[in-house]
Amino acid sequence: MRMHAVINAQAGAIIGVDPRESAATIKRALSSTGHEVTVEVVQPADLMHRMAEAARPGLDVLVVGGGDGTIRSAAALLKGGTIALGILPLGTINRLARDLGLPLSLKAAADALAHGGVHEIDVAEVNGSIFMCNSLLGLPLTYSEERQRLRGKPVLERLRGYLGVARRVLQTRRKLAIAVDDGNEQRSVRAMTLAVSNNCYAEAPGLWLTRPALDQGHLGLYIARHATALALAVTVLRALFGRWRDDPNLTAIIAHKVVVKTRRPKVRLSNDGEVEEVETPLVYGIHPKALKVLRPQPSATTA
């Protein structure tokens, strides 16, 4: 296959590494199985332009190295097309890469892609803006906004920032008055958090909520009505042990379309970790198998 890799030079996993070294590692791994590979490492301001330039007829796979925001931008570019997306997980959380079974080190991920196959996965959207993992309204935005502010800052400054935002989050009691229509029932609730996921999360123990399938053609809707952020934090801890569904203050629903109304003309959302302002009502939908991705074979998923 013909592959072109565009790598975010400011991605957290390669900051401080010689770009030529990163490019050589990627090219060596991807071409080891006979693929025709070119690689470029670019600054964030040039990412969209370079990805769009690369995604031309004749290319089989656009390999993108970066965090969830970078991967989301690439997915928006390739959605509905014939070019597959290959992911090199170079961010902090790497949600989609984890759910695809990719290793999280650069060389291991590139090796896995070199031996991978093309699969089709779903793309979710809200008001025309896509997301590959989740869209969050309410309390999680406090963390997402602080994470964006702290990108590229020194380690101690980031640590102080995260501790500060954790204190603010745990002290809050703020709730949102929302009306939620999942196509089967309309609910008027006061929620601390509303999350919509691209396919549903598994109730299984682990450090991360995971989605066992990315091609089932539905959304997961999660409404948290806890009285305090501390109570919500307890639910998050329960989730680590795979016991979040029996929380009476958490409603979990499977849907194909979700409409969320608020009294506000605009709200701030975190879509795949990127905070943006969106007009209401929020209309969520799903595009089944709208994105081709390069997925590692089971034998290639060891980190």
Explain the overall architecture.
The longest helix is centred in the middle third of the chain and has 17 residues, at 155-171. The model has no long low-confidence stretch (mean pLDDT 86). The chain is globular and about 55 Å long. Strands 6-5-16-13-8-9 form a 6-stranded antiparallel beta sheet, covered by helices on one side. The chain contains 8 helices and 16 strands. Helix 1 packs parallel to helix 5, helix 2 runs parallel beside helix 3 (68-78) and helix 6 runs antiparallel to helix 7. It is an alpha+beta fold and 303 residues long.
Main β-sheet, spatial strand arrangement: 6-5-16-13-8-9
Biggest sheet descriptor: 6 strands, antiparallel
- Secondary-structure element string: EHEHEHEHHEEEHHEEEEHEEEEE
- Number of helices, where a helix is a run of at least 4 consecutive DSSP H or I residues: 8
Q: Which percent bin holds the helix content?
A: 25-40%
Low-confidence stretches: none
Tell the overall outline.
globular
Structural class of the secondary structure composition? alpha+beta
Tally of DSSP β-strands: 16
Rg calc: 19 Å
Give the CA-CA distance, first to last residue. Answer: 24 Å
Strand content: 25-35%
The overall pLDDT average reads 86
